[in-house]
């Protein structure tokens, strides 16, 4: 058991090292200037691309630049501004409610603990991890999006399909300072090479250490892993 766990850990560290070399610069792909703006952009990024969110947030943040403004916004105007990101009614409602809570309970600042962050409407662990890592430089957990989910499974580092359980597995295998590095690099690699339907194993730098190389996965499993 011990040697299996350490082999997994070694594989995880080797994958991380190679992906860091391949993607030396891996900044957050959402545009923002403050922790509140990053929280809002991350809420908007659910079921939407970062590129699309980045086309919406300049006008949104010009009109409502901070938690106070967003808390007091006319919700129908908010809905109009975020409409093209999808699920816009729910997103606008959550953004406003989260900003109201930030104003009432947290003195106008985004809170820093996982417990407080996830008490905000629309903020689950994934959003909390992104906000904490990029706005505060603190890795509270491993961000698990659709790419991290699929690739971690293909790497044989988890057998789970639920993000919270995948996150627990990854937190045991990776050093805390690299938790967000891991997620960002996997997103890059998932988009560029190891995509959901047709992974490009022939041109993948991980081909010699990836247990799924040239193997693929049952269609049903891939479909499940491709959901957020
Ligand atoms: S070898 Fe294939 S399955 Fe493994 S990470 Fe690379 S592209 Fe994905």
Verbal overview:
- The chain folds into two domains: 2-26 and 142-225, Helix-hairpin-Helix base-excision DNA repair enzymes (C-terminal) (Endonuclease Iii, domain 2), CATH 1.10.1670.10; 35-136, Orthogonal Bundle (Endonuclease III, domain 1).
- It has helices spanning 2-22, 35-44, 50-63, 67-71, 75-82, 88-105, 114-117, 125-136, 146-154, 163-173, 179-192, 219-225.
- It starts with a helix and ends with a helix.
- Mean pLDDT is 93; it is low at 218-224.
- Helix 2 (35-44) packs antiparallel against helix 6 and helix 9 (146-154) packs across helix 11 (179-192).
- The radius of gyration is 18 Å and the shape is elongated.
- It has twelve helices and no strands.
- Helices cover 58% and strands 0% of the residues.
- It is an all-alpha fold.
- The structure holds iron/sulfur cluster (SF4).
- Residues 154, 193-194, 199-201, 204, 206-207, 210, 212-213 line the site of iron/sulfur cluster.
- Low-pLDDT stretches are 218-224
Query: Helix- and strand-based class?
Result: mainly alpha
What is bound: which ligands?
iron/sulfur cluster
Domain unit count? 2
Find the CATH topology of the largest domain: Endonuclease Iii, domain 2
Rg, rounded, reads 18 Å
Largest sheet: none
Cα-to-Cα separation, first versus last residue: 31 Å
What's the overall geometry? Answer: elongated
Tally of DSSP helical segments:
12
Family: Belongs to the Nth/MutY family.
Cofactor: [4Fe-4S] cluster
Protein name: Endonuclease III
Organism: Leptolyngbya boryana NIES-2135
